[in-house]
Design goal:
Layout (H helix, E strand, L loop, with lengths): L12 H8 L7 H19 L21 H16 L33
Helix pairs in contact: 1-3, 2-3
């Protein structure tokens, strides 16, 4: 079991702002929080750390070491949470079926704890 509470964001603020098409600093704190939250969600989904920290071995020590598909999954979720800031909606939100498949090659199907 991975300890996601000690997660380090697997995407940079600059990557997220580019993805969101944000060119101001007014929401940097929010965007950084969303990046960390979505990194924690990815670690939970994959049951492994993304960034190496302490005894927990991830894909490397920086966001650039994390596979692109995982970082893209994180960015897509950051975008969703950035736009949809409330816990409920009056309109139907339809998830895109391909998004979660981005994580499939990195899932730990066999129960092995080692990051690949």
């Amino acid at each position: 079991m991975v300890n996601s509470s000690s997660a380090v964001s697997a995407v940079t603020l600059e990557e997220a702002k580019t993805h969101l098409r944000v060119d101001h600093k007014a929401e940097d704190t929010l965007i950084e929080a969303l990046c960390l939250t979505c990194t924690q969600l990815a670690e939970h989904e994959l049951q492994r750390p993304l960034i190496t920290r302490g005894e927990e071995v991830g894909y490397g020590v920086s966001p650039e070491d994390v596979p692109v598909a995982i970082r893209q999954w994180i960015l897509l979720h950051v975008g969703t949470y950035y736009v949809q800031r409330e816990s409920s909606s009056t309109v139907e939100v339809k998830p895109l079926s391909f998004v979660d498949h981005l994580l499939d090659p990195y899932r730990n199907w066999g129960g092995d704890d080692e990051a690949s």
